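Field log, afternoon session.

UNIT: design team B
ACTIVITY: writing a sequence onto a fixed backbone
BACKBONE:
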């Protein structure tokens, strides 16, 4: 790497930028520096800035080039989470990863600079990072670049950005419009802010069955608060504390603060991965009286796992980022609240607002929030009784309508755990994407449905995909059905896949979702699609929603999704005779394969979802012999294991009938035993009695 002085034409601008950075440090704020125009000039100026000062842990993101610092690929940006940098150079001349940009912005300390290098004519055409959204047979060069044009427009209009054009001798530096006063120091000497001190105090007073949920924007010191509290709890006599997070690096700051206070403590303060934690909880090896669990970045962990830990650990705290680059803490807070209210109604909430790494009103934070919509919130709720219709948006207009884009993204954020900045690019530039909006004409949106085209492959390519010889990009549902279910017709047929559907929290359970789905179905039919499909985490309420809309299951995944913690469920409905023929084949395959899947690969599928799936199977005939078997189980002493065929037939029949609450519980328990060998709770004798009672309940209900 060269140590030569910068060219004379850059020195004045570099000097001005360094003086500006010194003022930023005194005010404890950060800023984005935009080097735009000729990318080679931008890299030259960024290198001069890199060499001009002894920056704390400087980081260069991009491709490795001769004469430049070693570069970290944007795809590995998450490896820097939990670390701190005084300078981050993000070379976007080869493409910009929105999620990486958001992640790295959070690692900058007070006085730090995020230097963004963009090429000439940036925003006029897609960049190489668009490869990730170019579905076969499209090339990334053929896509629109509305998202990049939006970024360029926002950066150009942002008064908080220091912009340095390749043609200019010096950067345009923003004015310091205010002196940011730091808040008074907290009474706690180990804490930086009063918010952090309050969090530590609350963590020290964790009560049995009163979980604490800490939410905060990035850089508010929540991980540090967990670490400080853990150190003090251990010092006070707590035997051990378990810590979990999506990955070890996410808990690095927690352990660093704990060890700074009490030294090496890994034997009593232990990190355990979420899946390993769940396995030990299920085996009875962790949890129970006196046990503590600290969960960091909880929004990135499947909610099903959080619920299991909630039951196992009497003292537990969850901390998560509210607005983030890798998941929606807001969606987590809204959805997980329901489980908390049900399992632990005495739970408590705490929100941290004061930043730790930088002063309030930080210019870089404001810039990234605008660029990446990190603080997108749902719009105001629609007025009661307001007339609402569904309209289909032109994406070019949406890209220029920032309030509507933010409102729609806010709806997606609060409805889905894993909504990231890159999803905005998919909305604006993803190929063959349609966006339907529910709302009052001229008013704020109250719902959104997003659809994408899939399938339409020729027979030869469909055959190669089904044989596992090709894997063209995209076409998630159609390819999965071909490759994993062996159905060639699934790829040759034309699909519309619903990728997202979200409704304002105050419009739920009022038919808004069904209205969006109705219009999506009509739009898919108009487009000439043969099939309409969706894939989602197998949850009973969602499965029931799609079944009510006429969809049937066509595939069940055999491993739990890392985001939802559920098995992926694919459902579809036919729109044309060709689609009906393909769907008949898919449902036939699904019905044949389901019993084996339940017995082996998905033996822990929830009984409520199991009943939903059984309700879609072809009706089974109950012979006189099988009816005798049921009577013998219910009223005599027949071993239920020797009448499993009869019990499976009864479970399928019951799942397809309207039942009262007692019969529904009996059906779920019976289905779990008949197909998954899942015993009723209690001893063997108690389980057998409960099973006999369940069979008798269904027989008395007139199921058969």
């Amino acid at each position: 790497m060269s140590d030569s002085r910068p060219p004379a034409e850059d020195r004045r601008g570099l000097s001005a930028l360094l003086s500006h950075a010194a003022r930023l440090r005194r005010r404890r704020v950060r800023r984005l520096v935009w080097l735009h125009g000729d990318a080679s000039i931008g890299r030259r100026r960024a290198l001069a800035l890199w060499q001009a000062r002894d920056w704390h842990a400087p980081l260069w993101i991009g491709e490795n080039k001769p004469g430049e610092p070693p570069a970290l690929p944007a795809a590995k940006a998450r490896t820097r989470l939990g670390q701190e940098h005084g300078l981050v150079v993000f070379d976007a001349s080869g493409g910009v990863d929105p999620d990486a940009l958001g992640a790295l912005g959070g690692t900058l300390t007070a006085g730090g600079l995020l230097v963004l290098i963009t090429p000439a004519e940036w925003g006029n055409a897609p960049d190489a990072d668009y490869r990730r959204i170019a579905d076969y047979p499209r090339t990334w060069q053929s896509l629109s670049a509305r998202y990049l044009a939006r970024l360029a427009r926002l950066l150009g209009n942002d008064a908080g950005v220091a912009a340095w054009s390749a043609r200019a001798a010096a950067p345009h530096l923003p004015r310091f419009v205010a002196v940011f006063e730091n808040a008074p120091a907290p009474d706690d000497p180990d804490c930086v802010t009063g918010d952090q001190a309050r969090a530590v105090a609350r963590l020290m007073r964790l009560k049995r069955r009163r979980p604490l949920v800490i939410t905060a924007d990035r850089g508010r010191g929540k991980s540090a608060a967990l670490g400080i509290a853990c150190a003090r709890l251990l010092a006070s006599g707590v035997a051990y504390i378990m810590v979990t997070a999506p990955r070890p690096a996410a808990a690095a700051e927690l352990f660093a603060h704990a060890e700074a206070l009490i030294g090496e403590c890994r034997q009593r303060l232990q990190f355990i991965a979420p899946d390993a934690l769940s396995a030990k909880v299920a085996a009875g090896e962790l949890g129970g009286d006196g046990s503590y669990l600290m969960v960091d970045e909880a929004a990135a962990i499947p909610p099903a796992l959080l619920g299991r830990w909630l039951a196992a650990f009497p003292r537990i705290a969850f901390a998560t980022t509210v607005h983030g680059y890798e998941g929606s803490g807001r969606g987590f807070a809204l959805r997980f609240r329901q489980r908390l209210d049900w399992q632990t109604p005495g739970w408590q909430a705490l929100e941290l607002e004061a930043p730790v790494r930088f002063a309030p009103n930080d210019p870089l934070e404001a810039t990234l929030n605008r660029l990446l919509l990190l603080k997108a919130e749902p719009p105001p709720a629609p007025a009661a009784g307001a007339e609402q219709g569904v309209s289909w948006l032109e994406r070019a207009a949406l890209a220029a309508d920032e309030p509507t884009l933010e409102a729609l993204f806010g709806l997606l954020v609060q409805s889905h755990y894993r909504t990231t900045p890159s999803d905005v690019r998919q909305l604006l530039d993803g190929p063959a994407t349609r966006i339907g909006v529910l709302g009052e004409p001229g008013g704020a949106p109250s719902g959104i449905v997003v659809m994408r085209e899939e399938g339409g492959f020729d027979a030869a390519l469909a055959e190669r995909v089904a044989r596992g010889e090709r894997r063209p990009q995209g076409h998630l549902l159609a390819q999965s059905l071909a490759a994993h279910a062996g159905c060639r017709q699934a790829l040759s047929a034309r699909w519309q896949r619903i990728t997202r559907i979200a409704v304002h929290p105050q419009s739920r359970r009022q038919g808004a979702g069904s209205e969006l789905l109705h219009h999506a179905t009509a739009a898919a039919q108009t487009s000439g699609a043969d099939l309409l499909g969706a894939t989602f985490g197998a949850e009973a309420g969602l499965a029931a929603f799609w079944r009510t809309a006429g969809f049937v299951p066509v595939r069940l995944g055999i491993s739990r999704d890392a985001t939802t913690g559920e098995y992926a469920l694919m459902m579809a409905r036919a729109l044309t005779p060709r689609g009906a023929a393909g769907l008949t084949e898919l449902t036939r395959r699904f019905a044949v394969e389901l019993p084996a899947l339940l017995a082996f690969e998905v033996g822990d599928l929830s009984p409520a979802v199991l009943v939903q799936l059984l309700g879609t199977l072809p009706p089974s005939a109950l012979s006189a012999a099988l009816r005798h078997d049921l009577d013998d189980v219910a009223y005599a002493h027949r071993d239920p294991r020797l009448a499993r065929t009869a019990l499976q037939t009864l479970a399928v029949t019951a799942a397809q009938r309207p039942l009262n609450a007692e019969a529904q519980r009996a059906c779920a328990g019976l289905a779990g035993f008949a197909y998954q060998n899942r015993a009723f709770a209690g001893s063997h004798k108690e389980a057998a009695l409960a099973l006999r009672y369940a069979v008798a309940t269904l027989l008395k209900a007139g199921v058969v």
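LOG NOTE: The chain is about 40% helix and 15% strand.
NEXT ACTIVITY: expression trials, pending approval
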